Input
Amino acid sequence: MIGNFEDPRKTFGKAVTDIALQDERVVLLSADSGKSSGFGDFIKASPDRYFEFGIMEQQVVGVASGLATTGKIPVFCAIAPFVTARPFEMFRNDLGYMKQNAKIVGRNGGITYSDLGSTHHSLDDYALMKMIPGVVIIDPQDPNEIRSAVKAMIDYVGPVYMRIGNSAMPNIFEEEPFVIGKGRKVTEGTDVTIVSTGSVTAAVLQANELLKANGISAEIIGLPTICPLDEELILASVEKTGKIVTVEEHYVYGGIGTMISDLLCREYPRKVLKLGVPHDYATNGPYNEILAKYGLDAAGIAASVTGFIK
Amino acid sequence: MTDKELLALKAKATECRLSVMRMLRASHHGHIGGAFSAMDIVTALYFYKMHIDPKNPKMEDRDRFILSAGHKCLCQYAALAERGYFPKEVLDTYGSLDAVIPGHPNMHELPGVEANTGALGHGLAIANGMALGARLSCNGSRVYVVMGDGELAEGSNWEAAAAAAHHKIDNLTLFVDNNGLQISGKVTDVMNFMPVGERFKAFGWAVEEIDGNDMAQIVDVLDRQPFVKGKPSCIVAHTVKSKGLSFAEGDVAFHYWKTTDELMDRGESELKALLEEQRKGA
Output
């Protein structure tokens, strides 16, 4: 189940580069962030379609909008809070309200810039992007999903926000075509539904081994697309298990836990356990230790799920 | 350009100002001051300079106009209507529910609008992207921006100013509508960004200063774009707020005008008299 590990930024950069070298509409943008986003090979191969702007993310989002109006497909990748929280109004007006076909990628998302502290964490990016009508939000769960999601993101016409992490990420799924808005049922189960997104899905799968050992049958749903939410898949599972836990590297407010709570409140009221980071400025330190502190490692997830269903 | 052609262009600017008054008749309020200070520039762009086709507003190699100071939209709506992008009857809907000419322009509602501006400090970055896209497509398209002088305080403009110079975006022309007034008073009192021209020069732009209500000077700078190959062009246009309405010129109270019938009548009479004079000469 847990396969080889890859650097998500390199995987992303190569996936974009492979497409951009074949598709002259694709233009890559950098705010002193291009090489760290894996664009190094593209910069050498096609410097005319790569623009370095230095550290001015607001301006780059505006440029992405303008480029998109001319039929180009801009891809702008930088540190997640600096492409979401900082230029929020540019994202909302210039990409959302203007409905432009631009792709904004927040790397080192969540708390992966662990020891750099709260300024460099993005624990509100799903919530911020969700508030902009018409924006697709993607958070791939493994390197194979990054590859297929990049293709889907560029094929899709409209504004997309994709979050990727930083730490080495295991392959947990076979590579297959990515369908925006579709989740995947990873395991069949009867006692509880666990819904997760992004890199934390690998920890959920590890947690499932612990749950199985304790005789708990979990139905795991992985959501590489956060918005639009795969409501049908989630509802069908909860109607079967009757219990649901959400797991995300995001604040417990505003992310998939909140979106799924809204869904269930409307369609099938059930108690929801939302696992994530408490709504406060997260601590700093080694990434895996922070995840464990907030109960987002396999042991923590398994313990929370076990406590919830008993 | 002949004297007659110049006078005809001036008359068109007056016709556009009368179209602005028509919108104000419908709504009884609107950002008149900045619309009238920029009206001559916008008229010259739509009726003299820009490569556009109202019948094909999405023509790929068109020139583009970005009204970064979106609240001046009355002047853009007037020019678009006069140019034939939509029927003039639409002007009578200004201020009504679901109007396609809202208080700040929406590209998805009205042909000819290129960006959804209104929040200040967005237009120049969008224009940078458009100009770079045109450069990549090698289609000869130019991008023109009108920015307010009060808007200069938005820091995002200076990010965009640096980027335009760094990337040698010379198919970009920026007019700073320097009417000297913003909603709270004199721009130099609220947040002093003078001398504007020196600041843009320091950022690497080619800069000239004109009387932005003098059509001959506007035409002259438009005929010399770019001023310098490899540099974006900035025109500091010294204008008069509410230009064309004797009772409102230079009065900050008319930044956003809640009209009265008496003053509307007076303003229209003044503009009609001017138009008659201009038509005689043309």
In short: Chain A touches chain B through 30 residues (CB under 8 Å). The domain at 5-170 of chain A is CATH 3.40.50.970 (Rossmann fold). The CA atoms of residues 196 and 222 of chain A lie 5 Å apart. Chain A has a mean pLDDT of 97.
